[in-house]
């Protein structure tokens, strides 16, 4: 028998794409922020050792905006250090402002306002006094005073309403 050439026919290789696993790309984990060193003795202390709280009584008529100007503090700037606190109040105590010292040098102090409060108390309330009497604030020593013309009748009143009440009583007493 004649030998037949037996050629093994192999099925055509099917085009196979390489097997790829679709794993999400691994992103580099964000680096953790470097840890700060523990606080040392030189950075620790009483607040009063680092910063000074100041109190300033400004003249009646001074506005809170004026106190934010760095030149406003030029005559006393040598006393301030960054971090100090300045509590500002006018003589009539109608408002209170807390300032934070950012920088201070020769003839200037840079401040930022932390807090502001406009008082609505009886201390600054509008009170009617008899028309011929004048009620005025005379500073932190004399406080509120009552005037009749050029003459000071009485001073030392803690509030404007108290001075106005006294003026009304004085007028009633002198008209009898």
Structure report:
The protein is α+β, with helices and mostly antiparallel strands and 176 residues long. It has two domains: 48-118, Ribosomal Protein L25, Chain P (Beta Barrel), CATH 2.40.240; 122-174. It is built from three helices and seven strands. The protein has helices spanning 47-50, 139-142, 160-174; strands at residues 53-58, 85-90, 95-105, 108-118, 133-137, 144-148, 151-157. Strands 1-2-3-4 form a four-stranded mixed sheet, with no helix packed on it. A three-stranded antiparallel sheet has the order 5-6-7. The mean pLDDT is 84.
Q: What proportion of the residues form beta strands (DSSP E)?
A: 25-35%
Strand order of the largest sheet: 1-2-3-4
Q: Which structural class best describes the helix and strand composition? A: alpha+beta
Mean pLDDT: 84
Count of distinct strands: 7
Helix content: 10-25%
* Oligomer kind: single chain
Strand and helix layout:
Blueprint: H1 47-50, E1 53-58, E2 85-90, E3 95-105, E4 108-118, E5 133-137, H2 139-142, E6 144-148, E7 151-157, H3 160-174
Parallel strand pairs: 1-2
Antiparallel strand pairs: 2-3, 3-4, 5-6, 6-7
Give a quick set of tags describing it.
Ribosomal Protein L25, Chain P; elongated; 7 strands; 4-stranded mixed beta sheet; 13% helix; 3-stranded antiparallel beta sheet; alpha+beta; single chain; 176 residues
Write a concise synopsis of the structure shown:
The protein is 13% helix and 29% strand. With 176 residues, the protein is α+β, with helices and mostly antiparallel strands.
């Amino acid at each position: 028998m004649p030998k037949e050439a037996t050629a093994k026919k192999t099925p055509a290789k099917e085009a196979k794409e390489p097997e790829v696993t679709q794993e999400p790309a691994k992103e580099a984990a964000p680096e953790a922020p470097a840890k700060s060193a523990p606080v040392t003795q030189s950075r620790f202390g009483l607040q009063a050792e680092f910063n000074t709280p100041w109190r300033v009584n400004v003249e009646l008529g001074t506005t809170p905006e004026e106190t934010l100007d760095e030149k406003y503090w030029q005559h006393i700037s040598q006393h301030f250090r960054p971090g100090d606190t300045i509590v500002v109040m006018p003589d009539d105590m109608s408002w209170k402002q807390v300032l934070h010292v950012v920088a201070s040098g020769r003839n200037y102090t840079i401040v930022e306002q932390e807090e502001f409060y406009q008082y609505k108390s009886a201390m600054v309330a509008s009170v009617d006094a008899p028309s011929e009497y004048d009620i005025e604030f005379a500073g932190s020593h004399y406080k509120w005073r009552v005037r009749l013309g050029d003459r000071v009748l009485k001073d030392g009143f803690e509030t404007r309403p108290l001075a106005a009440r006294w003026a009304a009583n004085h007028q009633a007493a002198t008209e009898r």
